[in-house]
């Protein structure tokens, strides 16, 4: 018995595989209506992880774009961004914690095929976010300049950055809302919507940043303050897009008038689940606040280098957080579907992929640290400080991977 192989056969399989992966990528980017508790684990992770990784990359792009334009204003302006962010990370810890609780509850209801329950949970999360946003504004609007001084800012930084800090800190509730509503989309399994919202917000920020910082065309020249204004406008428009999509329905979740009510039990459940995550990130970020305070004692150049290095790190590891968010959605939905073994499997696979990714990032930092910092500034002192920071982070990351 002989087997005749057509000349086209060797090319058929690769072409078919390439078409399959392109179709899968397209589905991930434009949105999937798959039941993630029923399809293969690898497919589910891919469909969720791709938009979530891109979403997190878009979120970190806010910081990269801001620091790219601000760095050209000098060390004081760059240091202002870093010191303000050192305070802002406490709000971000709260936002991340609340988003974790929101994703868990919405994903659980989605896995149970309880669309009304998921919509009610979404409304409770938004109410919590609004309350936190008001509280943040009331605290930071009057205290922002004092906090900047408390962090050891020099007179030059205080003169340059007080308005920037007031705007960024008092409007940081916008970050909370953006995280929370995107957590709703992720929990419902529609990560592509969350990704596209941040695309819109980022393009607005990218366009407005140079216009408001440098005073291009009809725009006023605001210096470092322009970065705060453009970022806040971009994120706020992103929130309006989120709310519009929620009201119209995304295919996975639709919030209707009947869902808009206060349900204390659901709200407390979100807060309870968020507490652990918020506390975990608060511990990590509190050390960041202390570190910024210590670095500032070495002058604006050291703080500027540290600021650029941290922005590069955040931009690089955000995809890792996106992969973790994909795992969280799969865990919640599979637990809701009474498939605990599948939920555990999703955690292990995502963790393994994260380990490989972070190892690659560490290698890039180690080899190209001065070149990466040099993209943002030509100041030799800032480049030296930033490169040292990146390489130290490599050592720590490699140590953590070894322990893992």
What this model shows, in words?
The chain is an all-alpha fold. It has a domain at 40-298. 83% of the residues lie in helices and 0% in strands. It is built from twelve helices and no strands. The termini are far apart.
Biggest β-sheet, characterized?
Answer: none
Instruction: List unreliable stretches of 5+ residues.
Output: 1-10, 400-404
Average pLDDT metric? 81
Order of H and E elements? HHHHHHHHHHHH
Beta fraction of the residues?
under 5%
How far is the first residue's CA from the last residue's CA?
53 Å
Total strands = 0
> Percent of residues in helical segments?
over 70%
Number of helices: 12
Shape: globular
Q: Mind telling me the C-alpha Rg? A: 22 Å
Overall SS class: mainly alpha
Keywords:
single chain; 404 residues; mainly alpha; 12 helices; 83% helix; disordered N terminus; disordered C terminus
Q: Secondary structure elements and their pairing?
A:
Layout: H1 9-30, H2 41-70, H3 75-111, H4 115-150, H5 155-170, H6 173-187, H7 191-214, H8 224-248, H9 264-296, H10 300-336, H11 340-374, H12 380-403
Helix pairs in contact: 1-2, 2-7, 2-8, 2-10, 3-4, 3-5, 3-6, 3-9, 3-10, 4-5, 4-6, 4-9, 5-8, 6-7, 6-8, 7-8, 10-11, 10-12, 11-12
């Amino acid at each position: 018995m002989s087997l005749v192989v057509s000349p086209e056969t060797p090319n058929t399989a690769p072409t078919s595989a390439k078409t399959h992966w392109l179709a899968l990528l397209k589905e991930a980017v434009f949105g999937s209506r798959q039941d993630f508790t029923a399809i293969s684990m690898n497919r589910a992770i891919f469909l969720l992880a791709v938009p979530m990784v891109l979403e997190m990359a878009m979120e970190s792009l806010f910081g990269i774009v801001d620091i790219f334009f601000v760095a050209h204003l000098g060390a004081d302006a760059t240091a202002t961004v870093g010191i303000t962010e050192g305070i802002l990370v406490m709000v971000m810890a709260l936002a991340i914690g609340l988003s974790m609780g929101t994703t868990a509850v919405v994903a659980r209801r989605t896995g149970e095929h309880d669309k009304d329950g998921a919509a009610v949970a979404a409304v409770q999360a938004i109410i919590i976010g609004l309350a936190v946003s008001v509280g943040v504004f009331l605290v930071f609007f009057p205290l922002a300049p004092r906090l900047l001084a408390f962090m050891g800012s020099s007179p030059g930084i205080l003169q340059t950055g007080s308005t920037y800090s007031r705007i960024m800190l008092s409007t940081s509730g916008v970050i909370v809302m953006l995280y929370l509503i995107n957590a709703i989309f992720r929990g419902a399994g529609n990560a592509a919507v969350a990704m596209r919202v941040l695309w819109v917000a980022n393009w607005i920020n990218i366009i407005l940043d140079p216009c408001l910082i440098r005073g291009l065309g009809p725009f006023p020249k605001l210096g470092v303050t322009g970065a705060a204004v453009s970022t806040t406008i971009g994120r706020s428009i992103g929130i309006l897009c989120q709310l519009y999509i929620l009201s119209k329905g995304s295919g996975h979740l639709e919030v209707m008038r009947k869902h808009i009510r206060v349900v204390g039990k659901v709200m407390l459940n979100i807060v309870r689940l968020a507490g652990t995550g918020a506390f975990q990130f608060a511990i990590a970020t509190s050390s960041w606040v202390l570190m910024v305070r210590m670095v500032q004692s070495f002058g604006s150049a050291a703080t500027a280098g540290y600021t650029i290095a941290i922005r590069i790190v955040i931009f690089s590891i955000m995809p890792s957080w996106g992969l973790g968010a994909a795992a969280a959605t799969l865990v919640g939905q599979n637990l809701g579907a009474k498939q605990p073994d599948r939920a555990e499997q999703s955690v292990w696979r995502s963790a393994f992929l994260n380990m490989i990714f972070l190892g690659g990032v560490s290698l890039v930092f180690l080899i190209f640290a001065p070149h990466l910092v040099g993209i943002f500034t030509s100041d030799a002192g800032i480049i030296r400080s930033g490169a040292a920071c990146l390489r130290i982070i490599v050592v720590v990351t490699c140590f953590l991977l070894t322990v893992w």
